[in-house]
Amino acid sequence: MFLYKILCSGNQKYIPYLTQWENIDFKKVQAEIRKVIEVLKQLEELENPEWERLKREWATSLLIRTSDPIIMACQQCGARFIFDETNPDYYTSEGLRFPERCLNCLEKV
């Protein structure tokens, strides 16, 4: 999740830290760090739709589903719903953003 948060920030200031981290971590993590560094370096050249597509693709590999579901209550209708922490729409450069409404209420808008 940390790498995904850095990726979503789009901030190249993290590249030196990622490079240092890459030198000391396991090979699988090193490969993911290298991918994030490369995308951050190329970010200025990417169009917004391509950037959004990349973030969605990376959500599946960098975000890990917790073993215990997070159950929330919709602020509009009161229904309970399960929060999907692997949905990249809930991650911003500031961090994780919890939804306030269930999917049914979101679809009605």
Automatic annotation (TrEMBL):
Domain Probable zinc-binding: start-end pairs: 72-105
Pfam families registered for this protein in UniProt: zf_Tbcl
The protein, known as: Probable zinc-binding domain-containing protein
Source organism phylogeny: Bacteria, Bacillati, Bacillota, Bacilli, Bacillales
